[in-house]
Specification:
The protein is an alpha/beta fold and about 425 residues long. The protein folds into 2 domains: about 160 residues, Aspartate Aminotransferase, domain 1; about 260 residues, 3-Layer(aba) Sandwich (Aspartate Aminotransferase, domain 2), CATH 3.40.640.10. Helices cover about 35% and strands about 20% of the residues. Strand 8 and strand 9 form a beta hairpin. Helix 3 packs antiparallel against helix 10 and helix 7 runs parallel beside helix 8. The longest helix has 19 residues. The protein starts with a helix and ends with a helix. The structure holds 4'-deoxy-4'-aminopyridoxal-5'-phosphate. 4'-deoxy-4'-aminopyridoxal-5'-phosphate binds next to helix 5.
């Protein structure tokens, strides 16, 4: 079976709604390299959309999953509990940017974690409203779709969406939204859409992922906390994409250490490739839903929990936060240098290894998704898998495994420099 034959089968067997970026099929993968079914090798800077901070098939993670496979694979934690679930909760409680005491509960996907964070916030506050931001991405289930701040392609044809969800503006200096304007937009919602005392939570990404790797300035996060405290609103950080060493800290919130959130949602790189997600938060808030109100058949699956425990150990043992900072600095420097010969680069930004480059037409300053796509396509043709993001599809984001070998990383950056120059 080759890629072209597989593509034919895919088109008739699966719906077009599941858009697929690559026209080749994965056969195997190791750390930062992925081989397709025609045995072509790719350097994987997509990492399954930010899931593989610890790389493909890290030996310690594979060993932990295999060991669990030999014991049991499923009991449903709510029926017959297992100790590793509690151990993982304890470990998360100890590291999340929440003022203690903290409790955690596990789910399977990012969207599920976000949905449950909203349920917990509503149960605790007895209020319905949720404020999120333009450009936000929180998932594809109906509730998280309503929370997501982008219409096409996510929301098209799927309405009506759940109500009591309102979008404020996310600060973005490059596109003319100041921190003051962003905070002002929340204040406006209190006048035009929902009184502050009916808002359960403000949900935000400390660094917007799908929205373009937009970094929230600390002043913004501090102002959000203040606003929440004034009105009895909970502050929820969605660190599904930014978590687990990607930003050079365990969580992006650590760049604003003076602010603690009430709840945090985690997923993606927590599982190292096995689906697992979590909501962690202030114990008092987490205990608001009544027994039976939270959970799910697969929530906190034993294989995924074993994988997550190994992920946390690997991040610490291999000092991946420090490595994320070092690799990210190298990448930022490369992109900054490329600006001299590539006037289409309108911004280079990020934190640690959560780095992005944005492209605009140098003549008009308008976002340039065509140029962005061209760089992505040329990189792919030469064996480098890159992802785009951004509300205008004009941003390339970098999500390489933090365990990538130095020589492979340097080779990928050399290729990128060449492409940007030409
Ligand atoms: N929140 C954020 C910040 C995300 O980036 C994503 C996925 N891109 C989600 C939530 C949803 O996660 P999942 O696809 O696992 O449901």
């Amino acid at each position: 079976m080759n890629n072209s034959e597989m593509n034919q089968r895919r088109l008739s067997a699966t719906p077009r709604g599941v858009g697929v970026m690559c026209d080749f099929y994965a056969a195997r993968a190791e750390n930062a390299t992925l081989w397709d079914i025609e045995d072509r090798a790719f350097t994987d800077f997509a990492a399954g959309i930010a899931v593989l901070n610890t790389g493909h098939r890290h030996p310690k993670i594979v060993a932990a999953i295999k060991a669990q496979l030999d014991l049991f694979t499923h009991t449903a934690y709510q029926i017959v509990p297992y100790g590793n679930y509690v151990t993982l909760a304890e470990k998360l409680n100890a590291i999340v940017p929440v003022a203690g005491p903290v409790k955690s509960t596990l789910f399977s996907t990012g969207a599920e974690a976000v949905e449950n964070a909203v349920k917990i916030a509503r149960a605790y506050t007895n209020r319905p409203g949720i404020i999120t931001f333009g450009g936000a991405f929180h998932g594809r289930t109906l509730l998280t779709l309503a929370l997501t701040g982008k219409v096409a392609p996510y929301k098209l044809g799927f309405g009506p969406l759940p109500g009591q969800i309102f979008h404020a503006r996310y600060p973005n200096a490059l596109h003319g939204v100041s921190v003051e304007q962003a905070i002002q937009s929340i204040d406006s919602l209190f006048h035009t859409d929902i009184p502050a005392d009916q808002v359960a939570a403000i949900l935000f990404e400390p660094i917007q992922g799908e929205g373009g790797f937009n970094v929230a300035p600390p002043e913004f996060i501090i102002a959000l906390r203040k606003l929440c405290d004034q009105h009895g609103i909970l502050l929820i950080a969605d660190e599904v994409q930014s978590g687990f060493a990607r930003t050079g800290k365990m969580f992006a919130m650590e760049y604003c250490p003076q602010v603690k959130v009430d709840l945090i949602t985690l997923a993606k790189s927590l599982g190292g490739g096995i689906p697992i997600s979590a909501v962690a938060g202030r114990a008092e808030v987490m205990d608001a839903p009544a027994p039976g109100g939270l959970g799910g058949t697969y929530a906190g699956n034993p294989l995924a929990v074993a994988s997550a425990l190994a992920v946390l150990a690997v991040i610490e043992e291999e000092q991946l936060c420090a490595r994320a900072r070092r690799l990210g600095a190298h990448l930022m420097e490369t992109l900054d240098k490329a600006r001299v010969s590539c006037p289409a680069i309108s911004a280079v930004r990020g934190q640690g290894s959560m780095v992005a480059v944005e492209f605009a037409d140098p003549a008009t300053g308008e976002p340039d998704p065509v140029f962005t796509k061209k760089i992505q396509r040329q990189a792919l043709e030469q064996g480098l898998l890159l992802l785009t993001c951004g509300v205008h599809y004009n941003v390339i984001r970098f999500l390489y495994p933090l365990t990538i070998p130095d020589d492979q990383f340097t080779a990928a950056l050399d290729l990128l420099s060449r492409l940007l120059k030409s």
